[in-house]
TrEMBL record:
This is Electron transfer flavoprotein-ubiquinone oxidoreductase. Its EC number is 1.5.5.1. PROSITE patterns: 4FE4S_FER_2 (PS51379). It catalyses: a ubiquinone + reduced [electron-transfer flavoprotein] = a ubiquinol + oxidized [electron-transfer flavoprotein] + H(+). InterPro entries: 4Fe4S_Fe-S-bd, ETF-QO, ETF-QO/FixC_UQ-bd, ETF-QO/FixX_C, FAD/NAD-bd_sf. It comes from Alteromonas ponticola. Binds 1 [4Fe-4S] cluster. The keyword Lipoprotein does not apply.
């Protein structure tokens, strides 16, 4: 199938690219063939975000979003930021002691899954073809090395590689331009960055893992629009922070963000999150409530210093696939949307040149540098490196001074050029962490949590978690790091079991919630995440 533009990923970046493209085509009365492929079973099934949403890009894309019924129903009414010194104490910080980027007046508490479902409706109304359940598995390269589209994944291949009765080959989707909007650590984006050396002028990219649960709570405790952020405990051996947002319908959204540059191989981000909920600041709302959803996702947080070149012959990287998140705000949805809109404008101008359309649309780079996204990312360029270099407390103090007194324009630029996986130290440098057992009321185990993510994969299919060397987990990672995949994975995918008296590395791929943490944090860089069969993975209802 041939299109003018193929977009990989129906998240905020991909759908905004598609909508803006078709808006321009209709304004100029031009015919455009645009399609969006999405690996989730439906649009929104794989979307997970906090999320306090800044509507700036949405306002530009659809100025009448309120009339069109966009699901922005809970405006932020109050911001509270706490420093947690231990498992009982919480010190509320005055506004003057917190970066002004953390203030959320004019923003909304939303389900980004539902926002993306709404964006998909707008896209289809504009004439865009949206194909959920079709993962882009391979990149099509033209004879000259440029990108010519993607091939969707085959269906009906057994774990042994043989074709089952249900076999259906993938489709070639060819395009003049292909936009990769896969989200954080997209496996095709990773390939493109390497092939075209897009990151040769950037510092190392950095990531965090973000957890989220949705709880129904006592209506008497519910405060719609209240936004709570914390720093400090339980992250004694990692940087990051937590959140609790009071959404609509007597629900709260609770989560923890753990930077993936932590050193201790015994640290388990999942269990740190479970500990968090026992703190009185959180338990006062959650006790007696009901946990109804769980998920986790990698967050690309390197910012401007780590941003790769976003154009290459035949295509673009947009949104979190490139790393446009503004970590000073802990927000990336509005910047992802705007990066997609700028991409659409650059593509439309290029296509208007017909036979003279450039193979690589370098004009995008100028558009990006002149946009408010670039201005935002420049002002927050030091936020992550300051935390990495100075820790939560002193890094937070630096960021408060830079943001509040200098408006993000301090003369110095901090950088962290060590990749996250390389920060992990060996077991002889650390003590095991004794995490408390879950109580089934506030804290839970991994398997019952994965159950709430509605994760499902066809069992008889090739494993989508590929080991470059099958001997490394037991022969290298186990003695040096006590095989940390057992702990950094938030879904119980990786286990070390005993077989015939010997340790064996077991991969429970059916549990995978597509967070990509293994692809990022494995200290041997031995795990490669690729797309499983279409519709596989979590099915988040309203994350």
């Amino acid at each position: 199938m041939e299109f003018d533009v193929v977009i990989v990923g129906a998240g905020p970046a991909g759908l905004s690219t598609a909508c803006r493209l078709m808006q321009l085509a209709k304004e100029k009365k031009q015919e455009l063939m645009v399609c969006v492929v999405e690996k989730g079973s439906e649009v929104g099934a794989h979307i997970l975000s906090g999320a306090v949403f800044e509507p700036r890009a949405l306002q530009e894309l659809f100025p009448d979003w309120k009339e069109k019924g966009a699901p922005l129903n809970t405006p932020v009414t109050k911001d509270e930021i706490y420093l947690l010194s231990n498992d009982q104490d919480a010190k509320k910080l005055p506004n003057a002691m917190t970066p002004k980027t953390m203030h959320n007046e004019g923003n909304y508490i939303v389900s980004m899954g539902n926002v993306c479902r709404w964006l998909a409706e707008q896209a289809e109304a504009l004439g865009i073809e949206v194909f959920p359940g079709f993962p882009a598995a391979q990149i099509i390269y033209n004879d000259d090395g440029s990108v010519g589209g993607v091939i969707t994944g085959d269906m009906g291949i057994g774990a042994n590689g043989e074709h089952k009765d249900s076999y259906m080959p993938g489709m070639e989707l060819r395009a003049k331009y292909t936009v990769f909007a896969e989200g954080s650590r997209g496996h095709l984006g990773k390939e493109l960055i390497e092939k075209f050396a897009l990151d040769k002028d950037a510092t190392a990219q950095h990531y965090a893992i973000g957890f989220k649960e949705i709880w129904d709570i006592d209506p008497a405790l519910h405060q719609p629009g209240l936004v709570v952020h914390t720093a400090g405990w339980p992250l004694d051996e990692a940087s990051g922070g937590s959140y609790l947002y009071h959404a609509e319908d007597n629900q709260v959204l609770v989560g923890l963000i753990v930077d993936l540059d932590y050193k201790n191989p015994y640290l388990s981000p999942f269990h740190e999150f479970q500990r968090l909920k026992h703190h009185p600041l959180f338990s006062q709302y959650l006790k007696g409530g009901k946990r109804i959803s769980y998920g986790a996702r990698a967050i690309t947080k390197g910012g401007l210093n780590s941003l790769p070149k976003m154009t290459f012959p035949g295509g673009f990287l947009v949104g979190c696939n490139a790393g446009t998140l503004n970590f000073a705000k802990i927000k990336g949805n509005h910047t992802a949307m705007k990066s997609g809109m700028l991409t659409a404008e650059a593509i439309f101008e290029a296509l208007a040149k017909a036979d003279e359309a450039p193979q690589e649309v370098t004009a995008y780079t100028d558009k990006f540098k002149q946009s408010w996204v670039h201005e935002e990312l420049y002002k927050s360029r030091n936020f992550g490196p300051a935390i990495h270099k100075f820790g939560n407390f002193w890094g937070g103090a630096f960021n408060t001074i830079e943001q509040n007194l200098f408006g993000g324009n301090l003369f110095v630029t901090l950088k962290d050029d060590t990749k996250d996986y390389a920060k992990m130290e060996t077991v002889d440098s650390h003590q095991k962490i004794d995490y408390p057992k879950p109580d089934g009321e506030l804290s839970f185990d991994k398997l019952s949590s994965v159950f709430l993510s509605n994760t499902n994969h066809e069992e008889d299919q090739p494993c989508h978690l590929q080991l470059k060397d099958k001997s490394i987990p037991i022969e290298v990672n186990l003695p040096k790091f006590d095989e940390p995949a057992q702990r950094y994975c938030p879904a119980g995918v990786y286990e070390v079991v005993e077989e015939a008296g010997q340790p064996k590395f077991q991969i429970n791929a059916q549990n995978c919630i597509h967070c990509k943490t293994c692809d990022i944090k494995d200290p041997s860089q031995n795990i490669r995440w690729v797309t499983p069969e279409g519709t596989g993975g979590p099915n988040y209802p309203n994350m």
